[in-house]
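To fix ideas, we reproduce below one chain and its tokenised fold.
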Amino acid sequence: MSLHITNNDIVPCLLGDTVITTLTTHGYLLYTLNMLKSLQPFGLDKKVLIIAMDSKAYLVLTRLGYHTVCMNHTMHSFYPWNSKGYDTVCYFKLELIYQILSLNKHVLLVDGDIVFQQDPSGDIAEWNESTEDVWIQNDSLDDDDIRNMCTGYMFIRSNEKMIDLYHVENRDEKYATCALRNNDQTYFNDYVKPFSSMAALPLRLYPNGNVFYNAEDVRETAILVHFNWVKGHEKLVKMKKYGMWLLTPEEEST
């Protein structure tokens, strides 16, 4: 099955020239709903363009009033990091980025294992007006170490260079070298970062999981927390430990 994004899909979700977007499956849906609920206090939950890979996820999301595009893919499970299936999900993230950029809109890609503590819209407005090609979360422990950037939260500017870097003709053969090797993140670090102007987001505001679990001082300053650096449903355990699992039992039963 293919992904097809149109101008009609993105118009209701625009923040300036930026589209906030995420991709999910039915097996991953509770994480996505938790992320969306964390955006609710800032009026941003219904501004996210959600790509549902399967019809079950699509039906739940549309019933809840979210703006959702359905791929009608057969993939519907929870796919742990670097497992078979996860590589396919990550491939469609690259395609999603390409299609939105091709509509002359910037992309803010947000993974479902993120929880927002503060309103991100001020920074998004700043990125809209900047000249950087990419603003992206750092996956290291040190702001000065930019060897491994995290594609779970990244802003990409729509311009000819970035569209070309994500174009299918320049993408598929390269992505084959990344499959089950950190997938879209490796693709960015190997094939996008060296050819683009990039700003790494400060860890005190945008901590990855490895930073957040080990540095208490960022827990008050963080705009968001990305619960990566754990595999499978250990994410849920971590979210509950730090009081960031927001869904009620009634909402979970959805």
